[in-house]
Structure prediction request, 448 residues.
Amino acid sequence: MQIDSSTPGVHPARLPRAHYEQNFCDSHAALNLAQARIEADRCYYCFEAPCQTACPTGIDIPGFIRRIADDNIRGSAHAILSANPLGGMCARVCPTEVLCEQACVRNAGEDKPVEIGLLQRYATDRFFETPGAPLFTRAAPTGRKVAVVGAGPAGLACAHGLARLGHAVVLLDANPKPGGLNEYGLATYKATNGFAQKEVDWLLSIGGIEVRNNTRLGVDVQLDALTRDYDAVFLGLGLAGVNAIGIAEPQAAGLRNAVEFIAELRQARTYSEVPVGRHVVVVGGGMTAVDAAVQSKKLGAQTVTMVYRRGAAEMPASGYEQDWAQKNGVHVRHWATPKALLAESGRITGIEFGYTRVDGGRLVETGERFALEADVVLKAIGQTFVAQPLGSALELRQGRIVTDDEGRTSSAKVWAGGDCRLGGRDLTVEAVEHGKVAARSIHQALGA
Prediction:
């Protein structure tokens, strides 16, 4: 199938410089003082509040909102960060529409829940502006040392919890900066002005946490050495692998993993230096696909199309995120699966798809095909856990690490949490809870 590719090309600086700042500003305006007080007054401060039950980290939501109403910002931040030490970022990226806000009792009598996420952001942002005296201090040193591998949400939460309990922590991460997906994997408009590192800096300020960047498990350090040299090990490894799209992938410029594209944009000195195609196709229907698609449009792509093999109701991205993509000019096509990547002279020129449908509960192809012009194709159909650095040390199932509810693995000295753990939901807030619970379990196991 031939496609007209008379205007190929992937280039930076497609837009006037001023447009980038506008396009990549904070996607959701923060509440001001008056708005926060009005929104806080809408809360019923429920006893046994369903919103708190719906929060994976169990934040006392009525409690922190009441403190906002009383203008007790430090108290509000304490209520949030004692349950979720990454509460500032979670306020920005949590799918509150399907967690705490969906559970809000105001949904029963009104069409609008309390804006819990924005109130949480208001309290944490105000606190981080002028934190004052430390909210938390370290317990007396226990003399125990714990290695935490992976400085993403799970690892950071575990490290902070262990440090609060008096343990010495060495935090190892493969990247040049700590933060994991919060630093490298989020759309830039979700966490502006270096917020991810500001939150990490606050979290590390408790002391007792040594950070070693550019340290890869299985290359720079081995698991057996960690279990020998430390009293306990926590693995917050995340998902480092990227699923293939299931068709032949030619060695052609313009074919990229969406996660790498997002990381490049997150670490760019200026947005204008990041190249983007004129016609971009994103294969996938999850949050990464939405982030990659919307940012391609904001970089100046003429057309951006997301293609997903099933319908809108089955897309991993929330309805809110799907709507966000379309509001930002992304065209979303359903019921299509990739069949062939098209290339000429070493460059991607398009991608061919086959239409799909459900027949007897199974996804099948109809036999009809179509093609989209593209000079960039971004693969965003999920990530996988890379288990090779573990060898045969831990029990795995379905490609993830098997743990109990407290994160204990099949090895007596090793705990795990976050996306690498079997049964995870790919939520930042759940990863934080895994790390928090594991820290308590490690503390009890060490008998400190």
